[in-house]
Design brief:
Helix content is 41%, strand content 17%. It is globular and about 50 Å long. The chain has a single domain, classed as Divalent-metal-dependent TIM barrel enzymes (TIM Barrel). The strands form four sheets. Strands 1-2-5-6-9-10-11-14 form an eight-stranded parallel β-sheet. A two-stranded antiparallel sheet has the order 3-4. A two-stranded antiparallel ribbon has the order 7-8. The chain has helices at 9-16, 24-40, 58-63, 65-75, 95-104, 122-132, 162-179, 201-208, 220-225, 230-236, 265-269, 272-275, 293-307, and strands at residues 51-53, 79-82, 85-86, 89-90, 108-113, 136-139, 147-150, 155-158, 182-186, 214-219, 241-246, 248-249, 255-256, 279-282. The longest helix is centred in the middle third of the chain and has 18 residues, at 162-179.
Length: 310
């Protein structure tokens, strides 16, 4: 059987020009070598299913992004959530170069975390996301100075109030929709703690953002860490939780690979239609006991299939 691996014309041209960008050239050269290797050493294509967020392998992506993406593909993941956009580039790659790498590895760009989003950079960010093929812009923390973090207590929080955050998200969401994207807000644990006025920020956002502009990426670890019940939210706010972060919570309260902690994913999965879930992404913020991020992703990938995630 003839083994075909087609490079986009633009990508082939870029490989010839070493003076274009000192960040891009080594990446493209490495990618070219990976392509040649794959052509000369064809291996069975793994069954691809499921999504993952690149934040899990952020250190590896910072140093060897193309090689790391290939490893993610080799594990069998299909959908990608990005977490490395900076200075109008993705891990040092311009949008079309990044798209070429993802396409050639069989990885589908779905969503992108944009912690530094602002009204000053949103238009350019949206344009770059669309160039890669992303469908969703994710706001992972309260943006534009509202997010707080206490180094001594390791506690996250927010300032400025829920009303301001809701207005900001609606404004950003409208910009996304007008440009052909959609916006999700991703939670941690602090959004479930009542503020000084007794307002639970997460509830306020669900009740005061326009669902045409803003929906939610529920992190199943963090909502459980906060002591809240995902099923209660699915029932009270049906259809708003279009994406999930799937990671486990171990007996010590730490992050764990799927299936190696205390969370009952089967009961959440049984209500995915009520929740409105369209995508899910495996994540592990940190690993422990000598486990590497890629090892955790391998364990989780095997577990999600057994649980019935598709």
């Amino acid at each position: 059987m003839e083994h075909k691996f087609l490079l986009p014309v633009r990508f082939e041209e870029l490989l010839k020009y070493h003076s274009m960008n000192y960040h891009i050239t080594p990446l493209l050269t490495l990618f070219g070598l990976l392509v040649l290797f794959s052509c000369n050493n064809p291996t069975p294509t793994p069954e691809k299913y499921g999504g993952m967020i690149l934040y899990t392998v952020r250190d590896q992506m910072a140093n060897q992004p193309v090689e790391t993406l290939k490893q993610i593909s080799d594990l069998g993941y299909r959908n990608i959530e990005d977490a490395g956009y900076k200075d109008e580039a993705f891990y040092g790659m311009q949008p079309l170069e990044y798209k070429a790498v993802l396409d050639s590895l069989g990885l589908v760009p779905i969503s992108s975390h944009q912690a530094m989003i602002s009204f000053d950079n949103v238009d350019q960010t949206i344009a770059d996301l669309k160039s890669v093929g992303f469908k969703y812009l994710v706001v992972p923390i309260p943006p534009m100075g509202q997010f707080t973090y206490d180094v001594e207590t390791n506690k996250m929080g927010m300032t400025g109030g829920s009303e301001l955050l809701a207005r900001v998200l609606d404004s950003l969401g409208k910009k996304c929709v007008d440009a052909g994207l959609k916006l999700w807000y991703h939670n941690h644990d602090f959004e479930f703690a009542p503020d000084e006025n007794g307002v639970v920020p997460y509830n306020y956002l669900l009740e005061h953002t326009n669902p045409n502009y803003v929906n939610f990426e529920m992190d199943l670890y963090w909502i459980n860490k906060a002591g809240a019940d995902p099923l209660t939210y699915f029932e009270k706010y049906p259809g708003r939780f279009r994406s999930w972060h799937v990671k486990d919570l171990d007996a010590q309260g730490r992050f764990a690979p799927v299936g190696q902690g205390t969370l009952d994913f089967a009961k959440y999965l049984a209500q995915k239609d009520l929740a409105g879930m369209e995508y899910y992404f495996v994540e592990q913020d940190m690993t422990f006991d000598g486990m590497t991020p890629l090892e955790s992703l391998k364990i989780s990938h095997e577990a999600i299939k057994k649980l019935g995630f598709q």
